[in-house]
Write a structure and sequence with these properties.
This protein is about 30% helix and about 35% strand. It contains eight helices and 16 strands. The protein has helices at about 20-35, 50-60, 75-85, 100-105, 110-120, 145-155, 160-175, 230-235, and strands at about 5-10, 40-45, 65-70, 90-95, 125-130, 135, 140-145, 175-180, 185-190, 190-195, 215-220, 245-250, 255-260, 265, 270-275, 280-290. A six-stranded antiparallel sheet has the order 6-5-16-13-8-9. The longest helix is centred in the first third of the chain and has 17 residues, at about 20-35.
Length: about 290
């Protein structure tokens, strides 16, 4: 059993647009501040996909009470999935492209301030979701947003400008598809299962989402004329998308989606392909402790 004051920082050297040298400075800042607060700190850089999950799982087994994820939404997802249903709390230090979960929770976007929050904050219970066996903590989805996630993952440079350019190019190519959603056939442009309210960068798909109410918001964008694209984008960033005639939402605890072939999805922005074409979505209430 680890000392109760043990704290681990998991750092993704590839997250966001900051350099490895800048992340090393964050590592130093974490070590100094944690020691000053009486913790026994350890910081490890990830070396491969899934490494954050392995490190966080080992920390839970050792009885570490706080694990900080220093990275983007993907790093936070990898870390958090190992902490679900445990007594170990997640500290979020956002240095990614979107930082959707951090923004929803009001965590500082200045990394040093986020480190301070994670070290001095108290654990708060939030929900998480699953799409098939893939956990998500912010949003999961399909349709256009999954198409963009897959395209964005292929870009050599991360960051908001790259995401905007990728989304614009994808919009010109993408066509709405029909899916069987909860046994009803519907044609949609995009669909989000939202635990938190936004994708990141203050793009609010589910403006009324509550991350601790035991429910997900199932949000759909219906096919729309190209003339409406500008207004929909404005509403997305103005936190008023739910007022659009092309938006439809409902609170759920589970849902199923069936496609005619392999289904492109994303979980917290990470692109995935479901070969079966079937997505089973559910909420896991009160399954994660986050330091706020």
């Amino acid at each position: 059993m680890a000392n109760r004051s043990a704290v681990l920082a998991i750092i993704n050297p590839l997250s966001g647009t900051t350099t490895v040298a800048q992340k090393a400075l964050l590592q130093d800042a974490f070590m100094r501040r944690a020691e000053a607060l009486g913790f026994a700190p350890e910081a490890i850089f990830t070396t491969h996909p899934g490494h954050a999950t392995e490190l966080a799982k080992a920390a839970v087994e050792r009885g570490v009470n706080r694990v900080l994820a220093i990275g983007g939404d993907g790093t936070i997802n990898e870390t958090a999935q190992a902490l679900r249903r445990s007594a170990t709390a997640l500290g979020i230090v956002p240095i990614g492209s979107g930082n959707g979960l951090a923004r929803h929770l009001g965590i500082p976007l200045v990394p040093v301030k986020a480190i301070e929050r994670a070290l001095s904050g108290r654990p708060v219970v939030i929900d998480s979701g699953e799409i098939n066996e893939h956990p998500f903590f912010c949003t999961a989805g399909l349709g256009f947003e999954a198409y963009v996630a897959h395209a964005f993952a292929q870009q050599p440079v991360r960051g908001l400008p790259t995401y905007i350019r990728t989304a614009f190019q994808a919009f010109r190519r993408y066509e709405a598809r029909s899916f069987r959603i909860n046994e009803q056939e519907r044609t949609i442009f995009s669909m989000t299962f939202a635990n938190a309210g936004q994708f990141g960068n203050n793009a609010w798909m589910a403006p009324t989402a509550n991350i601790a109410d035991g429910r997900l918001e199932q949000c759909e964008i219906r096919p729309f004329p190209i003339q409406a694209a500008g207004m929909l984008t404005w509403r997305l960033f103005n936190k008023s998308l739910d007022q659009s005639a092309y938006w439809r939402g409902q609170s759920i605890t589970k849902a199923t989606v069936q496609a005619a072939g392999p289904l492109l999805i994303h979980a917290d922005g990470e692109p995935l392909t479901l070969a079966s074409g079937r997505a089973n979505v559910r909420i896991l209430p009160g399954s994660l402790l986050v330091l706020l």
